Amino acid sequence: MGKIEIYGISTPNVPWQDKPAGITDAPVWRYSENPIISRNPSKGIARIFNSAVMPYGDGFIGVFRGEQTNGIPYIYLGKSKDAIRWEFDEEKIPFKDEEGNDFMPKYAYDPRLVKVEDTYYIIWCQDFYGASIGMAKTTDFKTFTRIENPFLPFNRNAVLFPRKIKGNFVMLSRPSDSGHTPFGDIFLSESPDMIYWGKHRHVMGKGTEWWENLKIGGGAAPIETSEGWLLFYHGVTGTCNGYVYSIGGAILDIDNPSIVKYRCETFLLTPEEWYEERGFVPNVTFPCATIQDAETGRIAIYYGAADTYVGLAFTQVDEIVDYIKEHSVVNDTDLEIGIR
Questions:
Q1: DSSP state of 284
Q2: pLDDT tens digit string along 49-67?
């Protein structure tokens, strides 16, 4: 056990690879066998990326953005014994309404998967007369019931906190417009019942450094630690050849997570490897999930690479928190409660 605690269920079989020798100034390192999911991973699916996984039973389960060979994205279920080698259902996740009738979105992409109490929630981006957030719940990964859309269009990158705060569900999102916007801040909203959402708060905006000077958005579900909520998010910059997506890190206040305690001014991971630089959308590292072990402090980070592959990276909670604090630069809007 290190000096910084992770609160939550221990995952002794968390995938892990020790930091390679020679890496001295990077708190996050890539799995040497990346990418863990390559092209054409299953029948009818050309690419899987920007997907979320978590422990389940004696193994792992995940919800995966599968780009069908007709170009339409949907969400597929996957299972694994080691969280590295995955098997995918051939059929899309069969979403139902509250009465048990089929209720499939027109398309669905960039899912997150978060357990709160005894229920697993899937959150994704979809069409609700414009880009918006879709949600569903399950307790057994056999039946999947759609929940009312939490927000009006336009919104993306919704990420649920893994426990209630002051009695309410809490979710991050990134209000936007209907396209790939050149702007976007992270906001927070609360709900007593997963139906009615309010108490909206600004969390943080784009940064001054090049790698997040265009927009930012939520990534993996926040990790509860003794220092606060550890958040891996994505930051975007614009270049003459298009957007570049990097992974950043911040620590939010444990009781009022719209307050940013620490925010790392340097990226944690940026496109450098071939599978991050070359693909359907070049130069993308996009975090969507973590698996962590409270006993050892190990954290495995799952990220989409170039909108084509799934990559895996690792860090230790002591190392990543110390690094974020050491390189932290926060501004007045980070420190505000986020209401005006």
A1: B
A2: 999 999 999 999 999 999 9
pTM over 0.70: yes
DSSP 8-class letter at 158: E
**Alpha-carbon gap, residue 218 to 65, rounded angstroms:** 16
Residue 335 · residue 260 · CB < 8 Å: yes
Cα 113 to Cα 65: distance, rounded to the nearest angstrom = 12
Tokens of 269: 């991971």
Give the amino acid at 252: L
pLDDT in tens, 4-48: 999 988 999 999 999 999 888 889 999 999 999 999 999 999 999
Give dist(CA 217, CA 250) in Å, integer. Answer: 12
Q: What are phi and psi of 62, to 5 degrees?
A: -155, 160
Q: How far apart are CA 304 and CA 185, in angstroms?
A: 20
Instruction: Find, among 230, 190, 236, 242, the residue nearest to 217 by Cα.
Output: 236
